[in-house]
Structures are given as structure tokens and as C-alpha cells.
């Protein structure tokens, strides 16, 4: 039996539009009709807990595993207010973590474990997540490392599809939602 995991990239958070790292206190994003339609094709949908109230459906399962990367004390801060040397190091070094936060290598390891733990049934799974989570899911499926996370672009409001036969394979990456 083949399994399909459709990853739906959430819209850009308002905080990021303002030049701030997302904060755990940000409210849920608005889910456009294209995301709701794509969700309806799944038998089980994993969402960050913040989205549970906006996705009332018996097939929706809140899952902290699909939360974005923990930015520690940088969460909610403006990029311009961060020490330039630390920000440059965060961009260049997958092992660098913001104070109290998570580095990209740890985030990738977390997503590898999440992907490996997905149930083998039902056959049509879906995850709603921010682009950093979906990027980590794809790199994890390919057996990549933390450095590869910065080499893949996933656009907001796009879909990515993985299939599982004996192991996960990447079928579609970053296709626009229609």
C-alpha cells in the first residue's frame, strides 16, 4: 500500500511581514479556501495546536511536532534588533542556536523522528505547517543534513507531496495551491 503525505505551507505570519521572528504567542493564521480544499482530500490532518480551533474537523489532529523552529529569546524580536554577528552566524551555521532556542540541525532531527513515527494508515495524510517545517520534512525524507535546509525554498501557500512505499520519497516540492 502506498501512502501519500501532502504538506500544505501556511501563509507568511504577520510578524514575519513586519520583520520579526515569529513568536509562540502569535495567533493562528487565516486559512485561505485553497488550503481548506486541499485538507478535505486527506483522511488525517496534522496541524500545530494553535490551528485546532480554526480547523474544526474530526480528521484534524493537533501535533506539537509540526510547530515551527523554537527561536528562544529571539521569538517576536525584530531582525534589526538582533546582534548582526549572531544573526549572520545563525544564517551560516546549522549548529548555531538562538539563545534558549533550537538550531537547524536539532530541528531537522526532530522532523526526521516525526516523519519516521507517522502511522502507516490511513493512506492519505496531510500536514499544515510553516515553510521551515515543510523544508525540514523534505530534507529528512531525502536523508539530508542541517546545511541542506538553507538550500531549499518552500513558498507559503504551496503544497509538497511525499509518498511512502518502503521509505519516504519526495514527489512534488513547493507547487502553488490552486
Topology of helices and strands:
Blueprint: E1 3-9, H1 14-17, H2 33-39, E2 44-47, E3 60-62, H3 84-92, H4 104-116, E4 124-129, H5 131-141, E5 158-164, E6 168-176
Parallel strand pairs: 1-4, 2-3, 2-4
Antiparallel strand pairs: 1-5, 5-6
Helix pairs in contact: 4-5
Pfam families: His_Phos_1 (PF00300)
InterPro entries: His_Pase_superF_clade-1, His_PPase_superfam
Protein name: Histidine phosphatase family protein
Please provide a written account of the structure.
This is Histidine phosphatase family protein. It is a single chain. The chain has a single domain (3-176), classed as 3-Layer(aba) Sandwich (Rossmann fold). Helices cover 25% and strands 20% of the residues. The chain is built from five helices and six strands; from the N terminus they run βααββααβαββ. It has helices at 14-17, 33-39, 84-92, 104-116, 131-141, and strands at residues 3-9, 44-47, 60-62, 124-129, 158-164, 168-176. Strands 3-2-4-1-5-6 form a six-stranded mixed sheet, with helices on both faces. The model has no long low-confidence stretch (mean pLDDT 90).
Amino acid at each position: 500500500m502506498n501512502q501519500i503525505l501532502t504538506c500544505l505551507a501556511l501563509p507568511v505570519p504577520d510578524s514575519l511581514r513586519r520583520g520579526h521572528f515569529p513568536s509562540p504567542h502569535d495567533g493562528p493564521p487565516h486559512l485561505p479556501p485553497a488550503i481548506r480544499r486541499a485538507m478535505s482530500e486527506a483522511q488525517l490532518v496534522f496541524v500545530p495546536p494553535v490551528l485546532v480551533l480554526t480547523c474544526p474537523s474530526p480528521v484534524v489532529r493537533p501535533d506539537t511536532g509540526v510547530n515551527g523552529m523554537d527561536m528562544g529569546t529571539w521569538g517576536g524580536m525584530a531582525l534589526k534588533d538582533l546582534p548582526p554577528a549572531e544573526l549572520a552566524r545563525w544564517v551560516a551555521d546549522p549548529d548555531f542556536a538562538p539563545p534558549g532556542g533550537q538550531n537547524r540541525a536539532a530541528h531537522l532531527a526532530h522532523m526526521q523522528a516525526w516523519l519516521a513515527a507517522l502511522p502507516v494508515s490511513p493512506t492519505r495524510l496531510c500536514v499544515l505547517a510553516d515553510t521551515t517545517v515543510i523544508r525540514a520534512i523534505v530534507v529528512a525524507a531525502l536523508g539530508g543534513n542541517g546545511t541542506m535546509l538553507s538550500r531549499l525554498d518552500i513558498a507559503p501557500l504551496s503544497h509538497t507531496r511525499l509518498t511512502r512505499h518502503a521509505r519516504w520519497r519526495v514527489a512534488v516540492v513547493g507547487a502553488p495551491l490552486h
